[in-house]
User: Fold this.
Amino acid sequence: MENEGLLIEKAALGDEDSFSILINNYKKYVFAIILNFIKNYDEAENVAQEVFFQIYVSLPKYDQNNFKAWIGRIATNKSIDWLRKKRAKFKDEILESFDNFDNNVDLTANPEIVLLEKYKHDELKKALNGIPDIYRVALEKFYFREKSYEAIAEEEDVTIKTIASRLYRAKVLLREKWRCEDESL
Assistant:
């Protein structure tokens, strides 16, 4: 096997075979980092592709310091970016449901539409209040107060994995309750 420094130099100059060897050498390492953040295998694969693309694009600027740490930092940053996007998307979906009544309902419109929007707004509130407190509190702290897993775990005196589990369960419960209520419309 070629020296890693030589592979990096060749890959930085566009040698696809050298880049492929580097990727094969580090793909398990990168995937392990990503799975530590993102528990979904399919999503982790997508993030891994973004990581390797970023490595390919940034390789000419790499300063030959610590390649493994450099790759690890890229994988960590891409994972955190993915989590932020996911958190923002979920938060936006919830807030949009709340805001639809408050901001988007034309009060001069058909009274049936106004009542329907108010009903949906109330049902979402009811769904949020209808999930067990340990899940609702974790969801509110993470999405609405934008606290980290670590901060919530410290406040609740539980492990980070427990918080991750509570958030996952909270999202599932909320979606189930919201869908059940929404189907009744």
Q: What stands out?
A: The longest helix spans residues 67-104. The chain is about 80% helix and 0% strand. The chain has a mean pLDDT of 80. The CA atoms of residues 108 and 114 lie 9 Å apart.
